[in-house]
Amino acid sequence: MKVAVAGCCHGALDKMYETLELLQRRHNVRPDLLLCCGDFQAVRNEADLRCMAVPAKYRHMQTFYRYYSGEKKAPVLTVFIGGNHEASNHLQELPYGGWVAPNIYYLGYAGVVRFRGVRIGGISGIFKSHDYRKGHFECPPYNQQTIRSAYHVRNIEVFKLKQLKRPMDIFMSHDWPRSIYHYGNKKQLLKMKSFFRQEVESNTLGNPAASELLQHLKPTYWFSAHLHVKFAAFMQHETSSKEELPKATKFLALDKCLPHRDFLQIIEVEHDPNAGDSLEYDAEWIAVLKATNSLVNVTQSTWNMPEKNGLHAKWDYSATDEAIKEVLEELNHNLTIPCNFTLTAACYDPSKPQKNMQPVHTINPQTTEFCAQFGLTDINDRIQQAKEEDSGRGECEEEEEEEMDSTGSAEDPSEYNTDNSGLSCINPDEIMLDEEGGDEDLSTCSVDPSPDHPPEFSTSFSDIRIMPDSMAVSSDDAMDSNNEDLEKSSGSKQGEEKSSTERPLKRIGGDENGNSGIKKIKRRNQAIYAAEEEDK
Fold first, then answer.
1. Which sign does the torsion angle of CA 445, 522, 500, 264 carry?
2. Cα 97 to Cα 366: distance, rounded to the nearest angstrom
3. Residue 124: which pLDDT band, with cuts at 50, 70 and 90?
């Protein structure tokens, strides 16, 4: 089975699908599945734009709304996770996953599905330690804090994934698992992105929770995005016993969706030839959701997941064979995910722009149906109930958030030694929330629809890399190499980076409130601000 994998697409769905069609025309290669590793930007209308944690100048309608409205349909089944630049109000409607448009499926805060017998899992968002132990309490309309915390990974999602015992074929995360760079060509990585050096050398770059999942799940493939650079690694896992067969993970981080970048990867994955072509539930994952349902938290209160430390009566929530069998019987052994997509918001109309449209908290019928079928808690319904029971809750939250704003965190220190899954230094290819654009512009949006303002690029085949039998990652690739061809390749890519001068920086910088003290930064100022960060 051919699987196409994309990094941050930033709403450029037309670009992705046009590239896949070009692949078919030129090489007669048609992927059976497309995976996207976050920053998908499923923006339906102007209200959704306000729920994206980016400065107003980056809020463009792009082309997802055409697929949401039915004007277009994804030519290939697309499965994606959330990143840190999303229409959070839209994705929040589907905490357990669901269809955001026909043939486009979101995995939820965390999720596992199957396609043609291939098991695919993922976790959405990025890691920030000060929100990690909180519940999913956010709901639109967001404020300056919750518009960011809404996409932060929570410990309950990691805990659920750690209950899985059966083999995982593919796993996706938006930010990289911490330490993965030690299993790839660090020399080449730092040559392309020299500003990663401090975090790489101190082993603080990446998501520590994702690193734990990598060690636990040991998937055959792990795909990430976020840092806007292509990087491959090969990780050989340790075995717990002599009887256990050795396992290895082929890791690939993908670049963002831009012309002349390798933002798409094609891999061949073994599949079940007798399986159908429908996306399916994973029975073990459903059983884990049922087992952990009592742990659902929709408050800002911080809490730890159950551990075998003498403080919890139960700490193992993994699915038994009997529990999995019960799930199969509930579904009459038909695991097909129903195609029950429903419009839950007005779709953008280029002829009738509504710049003052406000986001509202919506309960999606897909989630209602899913929760009713499996006896799960609808997180959004629980939040709604809590708001109705306490009409003064909003004022209390504002007071708590003001305290957090002044102290940096209103909780005990995290179990991890840093709250940064990305970079404390400046990444010129990330979207930056600065003082001018990140906070006070939440009430504004800049609508730049594709029909009136088409993207300034043409599809080129240089955007695709085909890897027919397996990813070209081996133990040799996982070591720093002095190969002259590699040096030339790295140099050319670095030159490519330098050719795009004067572009605004794209990076989440500073603290969670966007108070980095950095205003408009251009690429030419990178060295200045990198030095300033080191001084701090």
1. negative
2. 9
3. very high
Strand, helix or coil for residue 36: strand
pLDDT exceeding 90 applies to what percent of the chain?
Answer: 64
Length of the chain, please?
536
CA-CA distance, 367 to 379, in Å (whole number)? 9
Do the beta carbons of residue 83 and residue 8 sit within 8 Å?
yes
Neighbours of 465 (CB within 10 A): 17
- Catalogue the E-assigned strands of 74-220: 78-80, 98-101, 104-106, 110-115, 118-123, 170-173
In the structure, what pLDDT confidence band is assigned to residue 444 with cuts at 50, 70 and 90? very low
Average pLDDT over residues 148-171: 98
**What is the C-alpha separation between 144 and 402, in angstroms, rounded?**
10
State how far the Cα of 428 lies from the Cα of 481, in Å rounded to an integer: 26
Cβ neighbors of 329 (< 8 A, separation 6 or more) are none
Amino acid letter, 381:
D
pLDDT band at 485 (very low <50, low <70, confident <90, very high): very low
Q: Where are the domains of the chain?
A: 2-391
Q: Name residue 79's beta-bridge partners.
A: 35, 105
CB atoms within 10 A of CB 138: 25
Which residues, 6 or more positions from 532, have their beta carbon under 8 angstroms from its beta carbon? none
Say how far apart CA 495 and CA 192 lie, in whole Å. 9
Q: What is the pLDDT of residues 379-396, one digit of tens each?
A: 999 999 888 877 655 555
**For 269-283, 297-311, 379-393, which range has the lowest pLDDT when averaged over its residues?**
379-393
Q: What is the CA radius of gyration of the chain?
A: 22
On whether the CB atoms of residues 311 and 420 are closer than 8 A, the answer is: no
- pTM beyond 0.90: the answer is no
Whether the predicted pLDDT of 24 surpasses 70: yes
Q: How far is CA 137 from the centre of its chain?
A: 19
The CA distances from residue 513 to 126, 205, 394, 408, in Å, are 16, 20, 19, 9
